[in-house]
Amino acid sequence: QEIVSGENEEESNGVNLMEFSDEILLHILSYVPCTDLVLNVRRTCRKLATLCLDKSLTHTVLLQKDYKVNKDKVKQLMRDIGKEIYQLNMAGCYWLPSSTIDHVTRCKNLVKLNLSGCHITSLRLSKMLSTLQHLRSLAIDVNPGFDASQLSSECKATLSRVSELKQTLYTPSYGVVPCCTSLEKLLLYFEILDRSREGFMLSGQLMVGESNVPHYQNLRIFYARLAPGYVNQEVVRLYLAVLSDRTPENLHAFLISAPGSFAETGATKNLLDSMARNVCLDALQLPKAWINGSGLLQHLKFNNPFYFSFSRCTLSGGHLIQRVINGGKDLKSLTSLNLSGCVHCLAPESLFRKAEDDIDSNILESLVVSCCNLRHLNLSAAHHHSSESIGNHLCQLLSRLKHLLSLALPVCSITDVAANVEKPPTASNLVPQTFGRKVRIGIQTYPRNLADQANQKIESSVFWALMRSLRFLETLEIIGSSFSSAMPRNEPAIRNSLPPCVRAQSVGDSEVAAISQLTYLQSLTLAQLPNILTGSGLINIGLQCQHLRTLSLANLGMMGKVVYTSALMDMLKHCKCLRDLRLEQPYFCAGAQFFQALSHCSSLQRLCIVSRSGTLQSDAVMSFMANCLEVVMCHMFMGESLTVCKNLQQSIVRSFQADRPALNVVIFPLLHEDLTEVIRDVPMRHLDEITLFKSRVAEEPPNLWW
C-alpha cells in the first residue's frame, strides 16, 4: 500500500506539458516540422491550436528535407497559413509534381522563395511570380525548354525587385538573370552536360531570344560553381563578359569554382585587372589557371576577408603569407579557408620542391596565429609531412585553432614522425595495397612489453592531442592524399586506385579511436587509411559520438579484403541519429548481418554503397527497407549482374514507393558502360550530398544561401 500511495503521489506531482510557459512551448514546437504543426499538432487542443499558428513558427517554412510531404499536404498547408509565410524553402523536393507550385501563389507576402530542384516550367514560373510582389530572394532551376519570352510583364516586374538570385542551369541560358535589374547577390550552378541523351554534342551558345544583357551594376556577391564539361565553361564566360566591361563598385565577393582546367582569356584578364583597380574583396575563389604563375594576388585588395579558397592552386606558402596574409598581419575576420590540393601551400617555394617533402612549420604557425578565428579549414588532397622538430608537428600547431567547427586533413599529416619510424611493420604494411590475388595473413604478434609500450603511446600521439583540443568540432574528414573515388562525375568507374602515401602506412585503428573524443561530431569521412586491422576504433566512435548524422567510409585497410565489417556492424548498433551512410570498399558483402545491424539506425534516410566486385543479398535489402521506415534513398553500385540489380530495384520501388513519395532507388553494376547515363537521372540533392565522393569542408563560404 505504501508503494502504491507513493506512485500515486508521484503522478499527482508530475508536470503537465501544457503547464509550461508559452515561450518554452514555442521553443519546443520550433523543432517540429511545420507540416506536422499545422496539419496535426494544432488539432490536439485549443492552446496548441493557438501556439502552432504563432508568427515565430509560420514566418519561415522549411520543406527541403521533409521527405514525407506530398502534394496534398502542401496544398493544405498553403491554404491554412499561406498568408503568414514570408520565407518558403522547398529546395530539393524533386518528388512533388510541378502542379504543386501553383499553390505557392497563396503566399502573397513571400519575401524569400527557394525552389531549387523542383519541377517548374516557364509558364508556371510566370504565373506564380506575377502574384508575389514582395519577393526579394529567389532560387530556381533552368531546364531544357525554358523560354524567357513566356514570362509576363507582371512576372518581370517582380523579378526586377529581386535582389538575391540562385539559378541552377541544366541548359545553356541566361534564365531570368536579365530580368533581375536590382541584383545584389547572384549564385550560378552550371550542371549542363556536354552530350544529350541521344548522344549529340551540345553547344554553349545561348538559345535564340536570349540576347538580353544581365544587369550587374548593384552586384555585391558573384558565385559560380561549374560541373565538369566544356559547355559549362563556355556558358559561364558569357555571364562574365558583362562583368569584364564594367566591374560593379560594390562587389565584395567574387567566387568561381571550376574543376580541371579552365583557361584564362583576354576578357577574364580584363575583369581581374578591373577588380584589382576598383574593388576591395571580402571573399575570393578563382580557377587554378587564373592564379598559377600570375601576380594577381599581389594587386588585389582585401577589406575584412571571411573566405578564401585556393583549391588545386600551385600557390606556395611564401606567396600565401606575403600576398594573402600580408606578411602575417591580423586576419581575425577570416573564418573559412580552403587549401585543398594546394600541395605547396605550407612550403616557402614550389619550384624545386617535391610534393612529399616536409612542410615549413613556420608558415603554418604564421597562418594559425594570423587566422586565429578560423572555423572551417581544408588541407586535404596534399602531402603535408611534418618534420621531426619537437613541438612543430602540424597537429600540434592546428590544436591552437580553438574555434574550428570543420576540418579536412590528409591521412599522412596526422601520423607521429617518431612513431612512424619506430613502429614495427604490421600485416597490412607487408601486403601490397593493390587489387589482385588474395593473400592469407594473420595479425602479427608482439612481445608483451612492446604491446604495453604501444598502448601507453596511443593517448600521447599528436593526433590524439589534436582531437582532445578540438572538442567542439562538428565535421571531420581524414582523406588519403592519393585517394580517388571509383565514381567520378560524368566518366566511367575507375578500376584501379593509387597506393597510399608511405607516411600514411601507420595510420589505423588507434587514430580512428582518437576521433571518439569529439563529443559533438556530426559528420565524419575516413578514406584510404591503410593500417586498419579490425576497425575497433569505429566502435568507440559509435559509443561516444552520439550526435553523428553523416558517415562516409572508403578504402579502409587492405584493398583485397574487408577487415572492418564486424566492427562496423557493432558501431551501427549505437548510431541512433545517423541519417546518411556512404560506404565505398572493394569486395564489400552487403548481406543479412550487415543490414540487420544497419536496421538499428532508426533515423537513417540515405544509403549509398559503392563496391567493385561487391555482393548483395536481395532478401536482406528488402527486409532492411521494410524495417527502416525513414529511408528514402538507396543507391548501390556493386559487382552484381544487371538482371539482379534491376529486379531488386523494381521490387523496392514497387513495395515502398506508395508510402514514401520521395523514394529514390538506383541499383546498378559499378563497371557497367551505361553507369553515367544512370547517374544523370539521380536528383541533384542526393548526387551532390552523398552519392559522389568529395571533400565538403570549406567548399563554399558559410551561409552562402539560406
Topology readout:
Layout: H1 2-13, H2 22-29, H3 34-39, H4 46-51, H5 55-58, E1 60-62, H6 71-81, E2 87-89, E3 112-114, H7 122-129, E4 137-142, H8 153-161, E5 164-169, E6 185-190, E7 221-226, H9 230-245, E8 253-257, H10 266-278, E9 280-285, H11 288-291, H12 296-299, E10 301-309, H13 317-324, E11 336-338, H14 361-370, E12 376-378, H15 394-398, E13 406-410, H16 417-422, H17 427-430, H18 448-458, H19 462-469, E14 475-479, H20 509-514, E15 523-527, H21 536-544, E16 550-554, H22 565-572, E17 580-584, E18 589-590, H23 592-598, E19 606-610, E20 615-616, H24 618-627, E21 633-638, H25 642-656, E22 664-669, H26 675-679, H27 684-691
Parallel strand pairs: 1-2, 2-3, 3-4, 4-5, 5-6, 6-7, 7-8, 8-9, 9-10, 10-11, 11-12, 12-13, 13-14, 14-15, 15-16, 16-17, 17-19, 18-20, 19-21, 21-22
GO biological process, one term: SCF-dependent proteasomal ubiquitin-dependent protein catabolic process
InterPro entries: F-box-like_dom_sf, F-box_dom, FBXL18_F-box, FBXL18_LRR, LRR_dom_sf
Organism: Opisthocomus hoazin (Hoatzin)
Keywords:
31% helix, alpha/beta, globular, single chain, two-stranded parallel sheet, 706 residues
Structure, described:
One of its GO terms (cellular component) is SCF ubiquitin ligase complex. Pfam families: F-box-like, LRR_FBXL18. The protein has 706 residues and is of the alpha/beta class. The chain has a 20-stranded parallel β-sheet, sandwiched between helices. Strand 15 (523-527), helix 21 (536-544) and strand 16 (550-554) form a beta-alpha-beta unit. Helix 7 (122-129) crosses helix 8, helix 22 (565-572) packs parallel to helix 23 and helix 24 packs parallel to helix 25 (642-656). The termini are far apart. The model is unreliable at 1-7 and 421-454 (pLDDT under 50).
